Amino acid sequence: MSYFEEKFFGPRAELVDRFIANYFKKRIRDEAPGVLRLKEAVEYSVLAGGKRFRPVLAMLVSEALGKKNSFILPYASAVEFIHTYSLIHDDLPCMDDDDFRRGKPTNHKVFGEATALLAGDSLLTESSYIVANSYKKIPRLAVAAIGELANSAGVVGMVGGQSIDMYAKRESLDLSELEHLHKLKTGELIKVAALGSAILCGANAKKQKEIGTYATKLGMAFQVKDDILDFDPTKPETGSFPSLIGLPKAREYLSHLTRGAERAIKSWGPKAQMLRHLVEYNENRVK
Fold first, then answer.
1. What is the pTM of this model?
2. E-assigned strands of 133-215?
């Protein structure tokens, strides 16, 4: 574990874990057997661990803008709800048909396809509720954040990217097409983690544009890094950056994106140092 993971990333991820666990403990009180089973399915996936990259990003943006973690945790969790819903649905037989995720049986393998579908639906709808309910005192900003969240998760964002992925012939994609796919499927939710946080923190239009650029480049860098880590030259996966442009060029592209993200928030000064550390962490992570 790197110093950044141990001292900065890990503690924030743990805050997210605790917040989400407490949230659903208080939120779902119906003891009807069907609801209890659904709650179990929701918690099975949303509390299964993972990097918590997106909510931690939201927290680092809020810190750079002078807000406490407690302020942004509901929004950060909303982003993680959407990410988890997308994983549950992606694993279904009608999509990627995966049996395992993070070393555990996928949701539908444990609870059945119907309950897994409802668990994903629950998390998606809960993402809007938690933002609307948690930021009642700043309704204009809450509406703006919910709008960005829905836009990034929907047909012009993550869901659109998934649809492109389903119908694309990976081996025939060129670089611009692969970038477009991942900009939507992976990048949009990373972008909105940062942008929605900035909106709720009252950032002006200039700062919103800068953090949007930063997060767009970070989102693509995150995908390129994943592709590099997953690359096996003996079994090259079609449709990944290393398989398309070669491993050395993929590493160069990762460095280019990382430096671009850092430049985007240059004017933010020392308060954004943790955001700079985050892109460096992504560039150097080993898993």
1. 0.95
2. none
